[in-house]
Amino acid sequence: MKIRNRLNPSNPCFSFEFFPPKTDEGTENLLKALEDLAPLEPGFVSVTYGAGGSTRDRTLDLVTRIKKTTGIEAMAHLTCVGHSQAELHEVLKRLAEAKVENVLPLRGDPPRGQTNFEPTPGGFHYASELVQFIREEDFNFCLGGACYPEGHVDTASRDADLQNLKAKVDAGLDFLITQLFFDNAFYFDFVERARRIGINVPIVPGIMPITNFEQVHRFTRMCGATVPMRLGLQLERVKDQPEAVMQLGVAHATVQCMELLARGVPGIHFYTLNKSPATRMIVGALRARS
């Protein structure tokens, strides 16, 4: 089923993001995490794509395996990095042949060791070009896209970033998923600004439960997300107590989700980091209150 048909504010769905492990053991652990999350009836799961296409085959295999063995709808990430148009066409063809119906086209991050994005000869500079390519090649995918409530780290301003997003949506996106954020005010302001310039597709908030003190600082440096001062101080006080950090992270994310659902979001997408306990606790608490 196409994900756009599952995004409904009157019946919002929960979805989960995974990344392809580097080993077979890691893959089995991921599938176990997915098995743990299955009773929560996810609307879909997504599988990321390594820098430079480094996990391309694992992404394709995992998406196909999830769809065939679990019955859960799966979405494959696809990036411009390291691929010519011909290579991208072959990847899309493989996905279509595997009956995968949902794709998340992205520009992608530079490969490890590079600071700036450099397009592959014969490839694309921007995700909007990849979206347009998929539509012009007449693949019948439902297409999601990434968006950034606090602005993309590579753009000069939030307004410029929003104009770039408008071009991407106009190229043929069906819905958007936000980068992680810890302050809902950024999300609500972003949605309002997006609607004002004519971006009318569903915008799904992306939530990452904090489970590790160092990890959250690494992720916020990478994506530019802001940790609210009060939350940052609370984390600092318990940074040497892993269980307390997780409890605080779960509590904060649960409160975030409650407010988001109360204000009519079409779904919530969880960045799981291939682990299930925190997400299970949050969704369990949300379901108990509904």
Task: Walk me through the topology.
Layout: E1 13-18, H1 24-37, E2 44-47, H2 56-70, E3 74-79, H3 85-97, E4 102-106, H4 127-136, E5 142-147, H5 158-170, E6 175-180, H6 184-196, E7 203-207, H7 213-223, H8 229-237, H9 242-262, E8 267-271, H10 277-289
Parallel strand pairs: 1-2, 1-8, 2-3, 3-4, 4-5, 5-6, 6-7, 7-8
Helix pairs in contact: 4-5, 9-10
Question: How is this structure best described in words?
Answer:
The chain contains ten helices and eight strands. It is an alpha/beta fold. The chain has a single domain, classed as TIM Barrel (Alpha-Beta Barrel). Strands 1-2-3-4-5-6-7-8 form an eight-stranded parallel β-barrel, surrounded by four helices. Helix 5 (158-170) links the parallel strand 5 (142-147) and strand 6. Helix 4 (127-136) runs parallel beside helix 5 (158-170) and helix 9 runs parallel beside helix 10. The longest helix has 21 residues, at 242-262. The radius of gyration is 18 Å and the shape is globular. The two termini are 25 Å apart.
